[in-house]
Amino acid sequence: MSDLAWIEGALVAARPQAVAALLRYFRDLDLAEEAYQDACLRALKSWPKNGPPRDAASWLIMVGRNAAIDSVRKRSKLTELPDEDVLSDGEDAEAAEADRLDAADYRDDVLRLLFICCHPDLPATQQIALALRLVSGLSVKQIARAFLIGESAMEQRITRAKAKVSGAGVPFETPGAVERAERLAAVAAMLYLVFNEGYSAGADQNERAALCDEAIRLTRLLLRMYPAEPEIMGLLSLMLLQHSRWAARFAADGSAVLLEQQDRSLWKSSLIQEGLALIDKAMRARKSGPYQIQAAIAGLHADAATAEETDWAEIEQLYAALELHTPSPVVTLNRAVAVSKLRGPEAALTMIEPLAERLDKYFYFHGMRGAMLKELGRAKDAREAFNRAIALANTPAEAAHIRQHLDALSVQK
Amino acid sequence: MKCAILCYNDEAAVFSWTKEEDDAVMARLNVVHEKWEKAGKLKPSIRLLPTSAATTLRKSDDAVLDGPYAETKEQLLGFYIIDVDNLEEGLAFARELTAANPGGAYELRPIMIYNQGA
Q1: How close, in Å, is residue A103 to chain B by CA atoms?
Q2: Pick from A401, A403, A406, A394: which is nearest to A202 by CA?
Q3: How far does the CA of residue A12 sit from the closest CA of chain B (Å)?
Q4: Which chain B residue shows the shortest CA-CA distance from A276?
Q5: Closest Cα in chain B, distance from residue A54 (Å)
Q6: Residues of chain B contacting residue A52, judged by C-beta atoms under 8 Å apart
Q7: Cβ <8 Å between B71 and A103
């Protein structure tokens, strides 16, 4: 790798902290981004010559701050007097070298930057796009490709999202403990959205799948700053464990391979090890939460050398715990899968029948119901359920999977 | 002379490498590994999981802390055990690693085995 590639890596890694701190100084998203860009340009000139600084983020913050203050001054001579707010830090700019950056400020800065992207008025897709643009620094083109939409449409979406959060007033006061916890929860949910966006990519959608890596990178960053938060450990663990299966999730023709049929030798063991270590550590705190429980479930799957060795009893208990935390018919449906392994299709069917009304439009409900009916030898009912599932399939791969069931039923006859 | 080569780098930067960059670095490092392994001088190499997976136990108050022992700009990411003739040879190995790796630092620390373990 050339020096330049290394510098780019360092710039990408430092970006969240640098933009977040510059946002605290300037209290303006555009100005903070501009300042960061300026600092990067200077880094590309200076680092190859003088070598990279030991603390890239601090360097970028100081240089970016000075550059932005300069440019605001210059512009103000041409146009109007600068806003008092913008220059509030101007006087001590010369003393920037001596200005020690406080680690506690850092963490709240980065959390704030992430939190801004979670504005409740923004739909999920806009939250994700804004975070990828602001925090990760992906280009509009990259984001547009990940979402499979045109560049100008994405540009518009991001501009609108930015205008909305800027108008909403960015929360600059240092958060209290309760507020910090709320922000962490909102940010965790947003990072999980980014991850799921990548996770739902098809076999040939590399750009989109890369969002998984980006979500993992940002969650690692968050956890480094809040190392004692069990739910953040749980979230990172969950992402790592899910992502570890990437290479096994698709067949050569691009169709999805179910967990049970996956070639487990393709699971990435470094990610599994890290995920298991994290969930192990999180559970010591005895503050259970939905991410930890889901990670623990994923961990039990990852830990089984073969599908037959899966600890379904433990998984059922974990789903029961998840039902208490976040009651939802989908969680119950998942629990029923574990029940079917433990106590057979009859018990599972009894468990899911009450969900029929609420999950009537849900592909997996009918697929699961069909599979249970098929096992019980109720071929006619099974066929009905499978037909309903096919009609609700979201992808050709899902439909193809149900069709296999239907074919098997015809053979049975 | 038995020696550990401790590998330090900025964890945030290393984990921000793209897959292609990471693969390229590993490919170059593997060339160095193979050469020294063939010479019988490279013993096991250990890769440490990220510091976010670390837990630290402090004796003074029996506190169990989430995270690594020391918060530093660069983190200990792994280490090699080598068996070389002298420090000069150890440095030659480390220099080859440095050439293959775009950043970071390698610390050579002589070691002795005090318990073979199970």
Answers
A1: 10
A2: A394
A3: 7
A4: B53
A5: 7
A6: 103
A7: yes
Percentage of chain B beyond pLDDT 90 is 64
Predicted local confidence at residue A99, as pLDDT? 45
Residue A104 is predicted with a pLDDT of: 64
Helices A363-375 and A345-352 cross at an angle (nearest 10°) of 150
Inter-residue contact A390 to A403 (CB < 8 Å): yes
| Coil vs helix vs strand at A368 | helix
Residue among B17, B19, B52 minimizing CB distance to A224: B52
Nearest to A217 among B10, B15, B103 (CB): B15
- How many CA atoms does the CB half-sphere of B85 hold within 13 Å? 5
Give B66's contacts in chain A (Cβ within 8 Å).
227-228, 233, 281
Which among A5, A217, A233 has CB closest to B21?
A: A5
Whether residue B23 lies within 8 A of chain A, CB to CB, comes out as no
Mean pLDDT for chain A overall: 87
Is residue A225 within 8 A of residue A109, CB to CB? The reply is no
Q: Could you say which of 1.10.760.10, 3.40.50.1010, 3.30.70.1060, 3.30.450.40 is the CATH number of the domain covering B2-51+66-110? A: 3.30.70.1060
pTM: 0.86
3-state secondary structure of A25: helix
Residue appearing with tokens 């959060």: A165
B-proximal residues of A, 221-250, CB under 8 Å: 221, 223-224, 227-228, 233, 236
CA A261 → CA A76, A250, A306, distances in Å?
65, 11, 10
- CB-based burial label for A311 (10 Å; 0-12, 13-18, 19+): middle
| Cβ of residue B24 closer than 8 Å to a chain A Cβ | yes
State how far the alpha carbon of B27 is from the alpha carbons of A90, A205, B6, in Å. Answer: 48, 25, 19
Amino acid at A390: I
Whole-complex ipTM: 0.85
DSSP B39: T
Distance CA A215, CA A63 (A): 28
